[in-house]
């Protein structure tokens, strides 16, 4: 159970094994686990989890870790991350994360323009770009994101280049005192003049020269978070969450862009971050808002008017929403445990 073997299929029906994946990056983790948690007959109770699976111009990038059970149901031991790159999904080349990036790396985004990610801690000051996922070079962050009190978040790669979300300090205000800070307000002294921030988006063709985008509907707030996600290789969703400091006054504003520069405010996309499936060119959204998930998996796409449109499903539809789903150029592949598969092929559109 500490062995990884990829399986490939051209149609989701006929599968064949690839080359066993090099897991030497986990050697130290497995050794530490066996020394501390080993239980006779249980030391192979490990599971591999995919953290990221990204597609670039000519390659795939896989990132994951192992979790192992230390006998009698626990305790759990989780390994460090490891990363591999492949041109066909069947043969994978390991990438040394520490040597390549000089430390940890944040969420990697892949698109037809290449790969991009932020490195280091939080707030990060290092940006990395790559065309193939194996060879990486340093990019540059926009000057406004490097100023004190401002920061950048995980960027997105797509056909039109790169988009970097971030937060800019608009007003310094007073330093937090008493119970203010950490995302919530508790009893005790409160600040009357808190700092205020604005969400921001920057676009770049190469990850080195950035231009700040213009956004309608933004407003300064005491707490701001800005994110950007790729719906498909030509469509991005940016989301800004603002709060005055309490747990009950947060609000989300969303925008869609097809070029990374011009953004249109949209409704109905709140809470969908992380629900996007894309194979590079096209994408779908898993879970249509307002639809009972107990009725089965639902999928939406972005319509011509930048609205959510539910896909009509017929045939042997998976009946519960607890499945693994993958999107490919020919349709959807759904499975619960790998013993039975459902294939959904679009008939129009």
Notes on the structure:
By secondary structure, the chain is mainly β. 6% of the residues lie in helices and 41% in strands. The protein has three helices and 29 strands. The chain has helices spanning 27-37, 97-101, 143-146; strands spanning 7-9, 15-17, 46-55, 60-69, 76-78, 82-86, 93-95, 109-111, 114-119, 126-130, 136-138, 151-152, 156-158, 161-171, 180-181, 184-185, 196-204, 211-212, 223-232, 235-243, 251-257, 264-266, 276-278, 283-286, 299-302, 308-310, 324-328, 331-335, 341-344. Residues 177-188 have low confidence and may be disordered.
- What's the tally of helices? 3
The quaternary organization reads as single chain
Distance between the termini: 42 Å
From the spread of the alpha carbons, the general shape counts as globular
Q: Rg to the nearest angstrom?
A: 22 Å
Would you report the number of β strands?
Answer: 29
Class derived from helix and strand content = mainly beta
Largest sheet: 5 strands, antiparallel
Q: Helicity level, as a percent range?
A: under 10%
Strand content: 35-45%
Poorly predicted runs: 177-188
User: Mean pLDDT, as a whole number?
Assistant: 86
């Amino acid at each position: 159970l500490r062995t990884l073997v990829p399986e490939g299929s051209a149609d989701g029906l006929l599968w064949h094994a690839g080359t066993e994946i090099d897991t030497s990056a986990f050697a130290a983790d497995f050794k530490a686990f066996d020394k501390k948690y080993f239980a006779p007959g249980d030391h192979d109770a490990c599971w591999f989890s995919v953290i990221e699976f990204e597609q670039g111009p000519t390659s795939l990038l896989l990132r994951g870790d192992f979790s192992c059970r230390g006998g009698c149901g626990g305790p759990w031991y989780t390994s460090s991350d490891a990363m591999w790159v492949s041109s066909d999904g069947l043969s994978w080349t390991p990438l040394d994360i520490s040597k390549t990036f000089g430390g940890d790396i944040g969420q990697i985004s892949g698109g037809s323009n290449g790969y991009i990610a932020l490195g280091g801690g939080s707030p990060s000051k290092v940006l990395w770009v790559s065309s193939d996922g194996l060879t990486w070079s340093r990019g540059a962050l926009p000057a406004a994101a490097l100023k004190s009190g401002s920061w950048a978040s995980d960027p997105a790669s797509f056909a039109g280049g790169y988009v970097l979300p971030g937060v800019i300090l608009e007003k310094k205000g007073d330093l937090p005192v008493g119970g203010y800070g950490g995302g919530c307000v508790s009893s005790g002294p409160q600040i009357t003049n808190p700092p205020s921030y604005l969400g921001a988006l920057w676009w770049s063709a190469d990850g080195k020269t950035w231009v700040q985008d213009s956004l309608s509907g933004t407003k300064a707030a005491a707490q701001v978070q800005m994110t950007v996600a790729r719906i498909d290789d030509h469509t991005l969703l940016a989301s800004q969450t603002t709060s005055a400091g309490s747990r009950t006054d947060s609000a989300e504003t969303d925008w869609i862009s097809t070029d990374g520069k011009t953004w249109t405010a949209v409704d109905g996309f709140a809470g969908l971050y992380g629900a996007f499936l894309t194979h590079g060119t096209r994408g779908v959204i898993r879970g249509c808002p307002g639809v009972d998930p107990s009725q089965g998996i639902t999928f939406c796409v972005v319509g011509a008017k930048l609205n959510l449109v539910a896909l009509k499903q017929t045939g042997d539809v998976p009946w519960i929403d607890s499945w693994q789903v993958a999107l490919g150029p020919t349709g959807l592949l759904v499975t619960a445990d790998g013993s039975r598969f459902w294939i959904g092929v679009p008939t129009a559109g």
